[in-house]
Structures are given as structure tokens and as C-alpha cells.
Amino acid sequence: MKIGLAADHGGFELKNQMAGWLQEAGFETTDLGAHEYDAQDDYPDLVHPLAQAVAAGTVDRGIAVCGSGVGAAIVANKTKGVRAALITETYSARQGVEHDNMNLLCLGGRVIGPELARELVFAFAKAQYSGEARHERRLNKLQQIENSKDGQ
Predict the structure, then answer these.
(1) Catalytic status, residue 99
(2) Where are the domains of the chain?
(3) Does the reported pTM lie above 0.85?
(4) pLDDT digits over 22-72, tens only?
(5) Residue from 9, 35, 48, 66 carrying the catalytic annotation
(6) Which CATH class is domain 2-147?
(7) Is 31 helix (H, G, I), strand (E, B) or coil?
């Protein structure tokens, strides 16, 4: 599985740690930036290309990190085909993939520590979408909303 990573200054250090963890576990990673620490960078400039890569299938899944994770989730969900969520515990990291086919995990680099981040990353990366009829039905409804002009 290829996992894309992106972070602004609020998640730069954690992103780099995650890349190492994932590579050691046999995952292929693509670092979409930031490639150096810049206290003035803006999360939309880094998370949007990651979301586009997930939607295009260039990467299988993505992980975005900003200071709180909120901005990353908002930006990522603006891209058609992306199902992103800010996650702070392992149940939702796994269940979000299994039930909702979540394809982009958002984390807050300033609000979680590295050990919890590691557990979240692997719960997300190792989970598989169930494809159950009830989950497919719900995803189809989500796609209908996404494809409508006004989101209603």
C-alpha cells in the first residue's frame, strides 16, 4: 500500500516520524511536503495536493497533519472522492476505514503524542473496507450528495 503524507509546520516533525514508522513496517510512502520546516507555511497548500493524490489514486491513502488536525480535515474534504476525518482514538481510525471507506487520516501534531499517533497510523493503515451492503448504501448516498451542485 502506498501512503501519501503531508504536513504544515504544526505537524512537520510528526510527519517525518510517521514516514519512518510506515517504511519500517513495509509501507511505501510519498512525502508531499512540507520538505523543510517553515513556520509561515499554510496547511491548504500542503494538504490539498495530498487530497488530490488520494482522489486520483496516485496514493492509496493519505495522512495529513497540521497543528490541530481540524484545518487538514476541512481542506481534504473539499476534494471530491476524499473521505477524511480528524481522529484521536484507535477505534475510529480502524472503523472509519471498515465502515466509511475513509481514505485520508487527519491528525493534530500539537495535540497528540508520538505513541498515540503511531497507534492511529497503524490502525488506519492496516484496516480494510468491509464492502458490506449497508456501508455501500451509505457511501452511495454520500456520493450523490458530493455529485450534486449545491451539496443538498
Answers:
(1) yes
(2) 2-147
(3) yes
(4) 999 999 999 999 999 999 999 999 999 999 999 999 999 999 999 999 999
(5) 66
(6) alpha beta
(7) strand
